[in-house]
């Protein structure tokens, strides 16, 4: 498979100094999402997958509108959160925002709460997500885009590379960057990291 791991566009939480747990995209973020959708529409994708957080869903929706591809929502792709617990969309809210999306069976109907996560538990969650990706798609030639979050993308990339989590290690993830990874049952090849060449200078 070829995995396109995308960070969401600029969100309300990216432009303020206070906590916005489930912010929407800003006007700039929506433009970034549209430019990313144009790029991804050229790649011959087969499936879109998103975190259940609004900023990721809104970014994924731009690509879905352009491609008509099915959208799955995986609950455990939420962003790493080391702050106090906050409430996020459940199945009902996701389907209001993304009619027709296929939600994980364990996504609660009326929302879920997460917070005070440690780097260790986030990395374990990322390893679980990588295992899920590889089991389902690793032996196929499908092209799949996953829309997630800056910090969780770092954990997921580290899990894919087989590196343990360690403080101070960071992989830059700009808004609406695309990471390209080739995954098969035996190998992982990183093809590109933090690619923002598809974004106009006015959105970077």
TrEMBL record:
Record's keyword terms, sorted: Glycolysis, Isomerase
Keyword Protein biosynthesis part of the UniProt annotation: no
Keyword Isomerase belongs to the record: yes
UniProt name for this protein: Broad specificity phosphatase PhoE
Source species: Symbiobacterium terraclitae
């Amino acid at each position: 498979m070829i995995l396109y791991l995308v960070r969401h566009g600029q969100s309300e939480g990216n432009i303020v100094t206070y906590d916005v747990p489930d912010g929407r995209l800003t006007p700039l973020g929506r433009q970034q999402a549209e430019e990313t959708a144009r790029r991804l529409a050229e790649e011959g994708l087969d499936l879109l997958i998103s975190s259940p957080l609004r900023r990721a869903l809104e970014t994924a929706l731009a690509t879905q509108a352009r491609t008509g591809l099915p959208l799955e929502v995986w609950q455990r792709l939420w962003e790493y959160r080391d702050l106090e617990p906050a409430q996020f969309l459940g199945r009902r809210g996701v389907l209001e925002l993304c009619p027709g999306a296929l939600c994980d069976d364990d996504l609660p109907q009326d929302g879920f709460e997460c917070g005070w996560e440690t780097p260790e538990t986030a990395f374990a969650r990322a390893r679980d997500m990588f295992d899920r990706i590889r089991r389902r798609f690793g032996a196929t030639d499908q092209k799949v885009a996953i829309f997630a979050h800056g910090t969780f993308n770092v954990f997921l990339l580290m899990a894919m590379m087989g590196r343990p989590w360690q403080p101070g290690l960071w992989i830059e993830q700009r808004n609406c960057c695309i990471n390209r990874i080739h995954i098969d049952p035996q190998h992982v090849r990183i093809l590109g990291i933090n690619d923002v060449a598809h974004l106009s200078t006015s959105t970077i």
